Structures are given as structure tokens and as C-alpha cells.
Amino acid sequence: MPLSPEQHQEIEAQRGQSATTLRAVSPGMEAHLYKAHQVLDHGFVRVVDYMGDDSAIVQAARVSYGRGTKSVSNDEGLIRYLMRHWHSTPFEMCEVKLHVKLPVFVARQWIRHRTANVNEYSGRYSILDREFYIPSAEHLAAQSVVNNQGRGEALSGEEAARVLAWLKDDAGRAYDHYEAMISQEGQQGLARELARMNLPANIYTQWYWKVDLHNLLHFLRLRADAHAQYEIRVYADALCEIVKDWVPFAYKAFEDYRLGAVSMSTQAVDVIKRRLAGEAVTQETSGMSKGEWREFVAIWG
């Protein structure tokens, strides 16, 4: 289970506290504050703190006092304009601090997004829990034949059962040896900072991750995409639901202009124009590589 009974009690105690404040609050985000949203088999995402809302984006763009100088409808229009034209600094006025529990191999993908403040659970000082990510059957997939960094169809039958058994057995055996190495019963015991190197990449770690909205949306654009690896995409999907409630105007603009949008190369624009003019364009006459043409056809036909 992602959270122990003690952790649930701690969260409920946090949510039971309240304080008056003069700063802007987001009712949607207040509903998420401290709650743990389960991801994968043992993981979660929860909001620990946040700053700003939609009005903070508008205020920064207009450099105005209070909640802005125009109507709510104009506020939404301005946010959409800022998103449409790739402005960034107004969105940096909002920040969120998250507590995330995730498998180590997902964390290594996640940490590539370097525009955040991170503090991870230390395997040098603390003993890691016996919790491993074990994929469900439908996510035990073969290597893709068209994408070197993707997966294809799900494994089946004896092969799927064998792989699943290996994943479970290997993880359990590695942790047994980890415990045996650090044990001080009848021996000195190996240092935790050394013993941890024997643990598998599917063991769970935890961290606090603080990021501004601009960089969070960049993370979501890449990791909530259908081509992202499933195990990190489900974390991005959970974050999308949180951001949607936190800054609804900004998130709707993000959906329209980033998440659901298509970027076109100069060659792609030229092909569209030539097609509209009645020309039959092929890959050979498009100026695109085979890979570029395949992606173009997948979107435009």
C-alpha cells in the first residue's frame, strides 16, 4: 500500500489544521493539499504547498496591484494569449511543492527535468522499504519494432508468467541480501551507502519536488504525451488533474495550445499549402525524411 495507517493519520491531521491568510488561495488546490493520489502499485503524488493561482499569472503580465485590472473573461483571454505566444515568466509566478513516491528507474527519467528543486530520501542514512514496482500483465510489453525507446504488444502466456516471476524473485532476493549485508547481528554490517548499490531499479524512492508552473507544464507536455513511457505518464496524468483544479484558465490554455496541439515544420506547412492547391505530394517530393513523413501522415493523412 502507498501509505501506512500512521501516514494517513498524519495527513488527516494536516488537513484538519487551518489558518487565516491574506495571500491568494486556489480553492481547487486547497482540495488537493496534503492528499496522496495513488499512482502505480505503491506510488503516490501529493501537494505539500503551493503559491499563486490564475490571477497571479495575470497580475505578473500586467504588473498590476491586487487581482488585476480587468474582468475575469479578459483574464482568461490574456492567459490564452500568453500561452499561445510562448510567454514564460508570467507562469513562473506560480509554484508547487510535491511529495512524490516513485520507482527509481522512473525517478531517473524525471530528474532529467533539471528546472526544479529536489530533495530525495537518502539511502545513506535510512533503510529503504521493501517495496518494488511490479507491472501488471497488460504492461509487460515487448520491444517496439518501430521505436527503439518504446514498447510494442504485451507479452502473453508462459513468457509473461516467466518474466513476472523473475521480476518478483529478483527484487525480493536483492532486498534479502541488502538486509543481510547491513545487519549488525553477529557481524559489523556493510555501510548502508554501499549496500544500497545491490538494490534493483524498481525499488521505490521518495522526494520533495518544487517547481514553477512554466516548468511543470513543460514536464507535463513531454510526460503526459501518449508516446511517453507508461510508468512516468501515469504520474504526469495525476499531476494534470491537480493542475487543472489549481489554475483552470492556464490549464485549459495548456490543453489547447500544448497538450493537444501539433507542431509543424517548414516542410510540413509547405506540404499542406501544396495539397490545398491541389498538388499530390509524396514523401519523395516533400523534402522530408521517411521518419518525418511517417509522423506527418499519422497526423494529416
Automatic annotation (TrEMBL):
Q: Which PROSITE patterns match?
A: THYX
The record's keywords, sorted A to Z, are:
FAD, Flavoprotein, Methyltransferase, NADP, Nucleotide biosynthesis, Transferase
Which sites bind dUMP? 109-112, 120-124, 196, 223
Q: Which domain of life is it from?
A: Bacteria
Does the keyword field hold Lyase? no
The question of whether Transferase is a record keyword is answered with yes
Q: Which residues form the active site?
A: 223 (involved in ionization of n3 of dump, leading to its activation)
GO terms in the biological process aspect are:
dTMP biosynthetic process; dTTP biosynthetic process; methylation
- Matching SUPFAM superfamilies, A to Z? Thymidylate synthase-complementing protein Thy1
Which Gene3D superfamilies does its entry note?
A: 3.30.1360.170
Which pathway features in its UniProt record?
Answer: Pyrimidine metabolism; dTTP biosynthesis
Cofactor: how bound: Binds 4 FAD per tetramer. Each FAD binding site is formed by three monomers.
What cofactor(s) does the depicted protein rely on? Answer: FAD
Indicate the quaternary assembly: Homotetramer.
- Protein name per the record: Flavin-dependent thymidylate synthase
- Native organism is Ketogulonicigenium vulgare (strain WSH-001)
Gene encoding this chain?
thyX
